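Supplementary Methods. Inverse-folding protocol.

Structures were first reduced to a discrete structure-token string of length 470. This string, shown here, constituted the complete conditioning input.
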């Protein structure tokens, strides 16, 4: 697993400060992006939290996920959460070290009382003293929130006084890309009122370990609650590694409802799911990968869009139209860009591989952020995509039966890819036999898709005519 060093630089540690005007939660920012360009220490908000105690608990939950590894927990993990200001809300996001849990806190306009909310994305410092101070925030005392230093504060420092360097595995970037594709396939499956939500979440195991996490559990709506089921019946939601919802325990006394999201269940294997706790003026969501030992980075949901030849140019066009919107409307982007909705979705998926796009299942909409990752970095790191392009370059793909069937020759092995009239794709390789497309397309299916696209455009692939192979 390749990794690089990711550096955070803060003017000072984030802290809860006491003053004449009350308590102040000062979240320091590092290396962000704004509508005016890059900023060393952007400032996105200054005002009061409408509900201090729930907000403090929810921020701690996001930090818990950033500091956790639910698989192989003996290995350390710690990334500072990402905050995005979307003009009408603040979003705090984090990923677990094992890449299997994604956390997001949406502090909506009703949860904030102060200046206008800015636009942009940065990291915020969450240190141990801050965590301890947040646990002592009470419900009655007003709490001022500052996300980023003001201009006067910045001028009083000659340079950053707090620096952190952490390893940034490539799979974490790929995980951010995959979660937005996964969540886009979710629907609301169940909604529990506060009392039932607390009862259900408190009944879940808090321990963990590899042995218990290997068994996928399922729940199905039953009136105002959820009941366990032994198999994925229609309407069921997968609960893979229930101990991974432990971070939600921090906010249970403030919960107003629990909403559960998941994909349609067709009797297949384990599936991802999202668990959203409604708080006063806020939403806290944990998205779980299909297995505790299986990070989002290997799901392969982005590969189809990355393999599309037009997605690169389309992504550049769509990116120019984004402005940290809290809701990205596909139809509106299609009208502005002149692209079809399908091409807009593929472009958004491609932008997601650079951390520019997220997905909010509660609003069934994409949103814009700008993580500090280079465009194309996740694409270049994906082994299946690299292998598929190598097959195309080697002329290993031959289309037959008018393109419905393809033969892919890899050394002494021949694999056949067939596409049914309804669009279902199958391959004879071992990868496909094992996962049946459940973790994205294999390299052979990707390569065939590339060749078919070139054929539809009347071009050549790898310098060869259609239907030929070396």
């Amino acid at each position: 697993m390749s990794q690089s060093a990711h550096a955070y630089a803060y003017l000072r540690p984030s802290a809860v400060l006491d003053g004449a005007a009350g308590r102040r939660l000062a979240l320091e920012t590092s290396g962000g992006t704004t509508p005016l360009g890059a900023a060393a220490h952007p400032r996105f908000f200054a005002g009061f939290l409408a509900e201090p105690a729930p907000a403090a608990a929810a921020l701690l939950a996001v930090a818990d996920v950033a500091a956790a590894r639910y698989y192989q927990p003996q290995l350390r993990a710690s990334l500072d959460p990402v905050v995005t200001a979307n003009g009408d809300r603040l979003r705090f996001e984090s990923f677990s070290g094992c890449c299997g849990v994604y956390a997001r806190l949406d502090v909506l306009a009703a949860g904030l009382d102060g200046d206008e909310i800015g636009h942009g994305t940065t990291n915020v410092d969450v240190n141990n003293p801050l965590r301890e101070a947040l646990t002592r925030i009470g419900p009655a005392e007003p709490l001022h929130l500052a996300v980023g230093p003001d201009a006067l504060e910045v001028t009083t420092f000659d340079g950053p006084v707090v620096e952190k360097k952490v390893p940034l595995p490539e799979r974490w970037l790929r995980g951010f890309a995959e979660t937005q594709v996964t969540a886009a396939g979710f629907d609301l499956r169940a909604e529990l009122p506060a009392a039932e939500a607390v009862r259900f979440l408190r009944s879940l195991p808090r321990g963990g370990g590899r042995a218990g996490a290997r068994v996928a559990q399922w729940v199905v709506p039953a009136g105002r609650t959820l009941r366990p089921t032994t198999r994925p019946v229609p309407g069921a939601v997968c609960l893979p590694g229930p101990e991974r919802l432990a971070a939600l325990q921090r906010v249970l006394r403030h919960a107003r409802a629990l909403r559960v999201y998941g994909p349609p269940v067709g009797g297949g294997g384990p599936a991802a799911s999202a668990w959203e706790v409604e708080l006063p003026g806020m939403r806290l969501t944990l998205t779980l990968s299909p297995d505790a030992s299986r990070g989002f980075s290997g799901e392969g949901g982005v590969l189809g869009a990355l393999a599309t030849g037009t997605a690169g140019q389309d992504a550049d066009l769509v990116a120019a139209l984004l402005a940290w919107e809290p809701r990205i409307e596909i139809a509106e982007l299609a009208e502005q860009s002149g692209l079809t909705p399908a091409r807009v979705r593929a472009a958004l998926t491609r932008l997601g591989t650079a951390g520019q796009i997220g997905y909010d299942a509660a609003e069934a909409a994409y949103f814009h952020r700008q993580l500090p990752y280079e465009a194309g970095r996740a694409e270049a790191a994906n082994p299946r995509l690299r292998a598929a392009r190598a097959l195309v370059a080697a002329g290993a793909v031959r289309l037959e039966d008018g393109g419905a069937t393809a033969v892919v020759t890899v050394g002494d092995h021949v694999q056949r890819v067939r596409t049914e009239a309804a669009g279902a794709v199958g391959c004879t390789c071992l990868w496909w036999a094992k996962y049946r497309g459940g973790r994205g397309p294999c390299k052979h299916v990707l390569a065939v898709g590339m060749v078919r696209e070139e054929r539809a455009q009347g071009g050549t692939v790898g310098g060869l005519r259609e239907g030929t192979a070396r």
